[in-house]
Amino acid sequence: MTPNPASPTRRRFLQGIAGLAAASWLSPGLTLPQPIRTQRIPASSEPLPVIGMGTWQTFDVGDDPKLVAARADVLKTFLAMGGGMVDSSPMYRTSEQVIGECRALLGDDAGLFSATKVWTPGRWLGVQQMEHSQRLWGVSRFDLMQIHNMLDWETHLDTLKGWKADGRIRYIGITTSHGRRHEDLARALEREDFDFVQFTYNILDREAEQRLLPLAAERGVAVIVNRPFRHGELFDYVEGKRLPGWASEIDCSNWAQFFLKFIVSQPAVTVAIPATTRVDHMQENMGAGFGRLPEAAMRNRMARYMEAL
């Protein structure tokens, strides 16, 4: 995925932030004990790392050089630790622009699985928006294009089927968030063939276990989990508390890994997409892709622990 040639304005901007980012990139790379854990995309059997990266709010930093350089460090760490899916949307204000700037600055983002969304009514506006997103990211094609929060989904699905047939995208998805519209989403999955579905699921918000997760498994649809930390609220529940000693049985060294391993150990889940602005938090998140995962009995123990807090 080669960035589009930079405009003079873009080149000046990138030159300005290159020096800000260079120092942190000179530090020795992390030595990973093993490849990151992957799950296969049912539609193709392609392996995908189980920890991805969301960009809602965290990458919406506009043209601030220092903040863009910091986000480039976050993306570099994500990719260096074996990350794949980066998920965004036109809804996320300047996030797509910043992803494109980070990609151009990094120069090498091998392994990136580009995922964004269409979020506008109407066929023509949808096409214009998707093409604009492609220019912002600087990709020749998106790996995954999703219909954001089911907005005008039947209209966009027809367009996306054509784009996939023409090789303009690789996979088609549909999303909802904040636990909304699960029934509508289930009906859409029953009617149409999607490659991916995205919805909210975490150790406290488990409604998806009743229908959406089993349905996705039955229909052969890859599952992307958003809001894995309940937008940070889960950390409030455990503030000041040590990890329980038995968390070492699933190789957890911090709460982020505890929460993420609960999610990615669910058999129907393909990838979770936590978001962060910090390199150290990215390293913690990515650690959930390594080591042992909880089995059913341990998952129940983890859920009971959180419910009791």
Characterise this structure.
The structure is a single chain. It contains 11 helices and 10 strands. With 309 residues, it is an alpha/beta fold. It has a single domain (47-307), classed as NADP-dependent oxidoreductase domain (TIM Barrel). β6 (142-147), α5 (153-165) and β7 (169-175) form a beta-alpha-beta unit. Residues 1-29 have low confidence and may be disordered.
Brief write-up:
This protein is of the alpha/beta class and 309 residues long.
Distinctive features:
TIM Barrel, disordered N terminus, alpha/beta, two-stranded antiparallel sheet, 14% strand, 309 residues
Give the end-to-end Cα distance, rounded to a whole number of Å. 45 Å
Uncertain residue ranges: 1-29
* Oligomeric description of these chains: single chain
- As a whole number of angstroms, the C-alpha radius of gyration is 19 Å
Q: Which CATH class applies here?
A: Alpha Beta
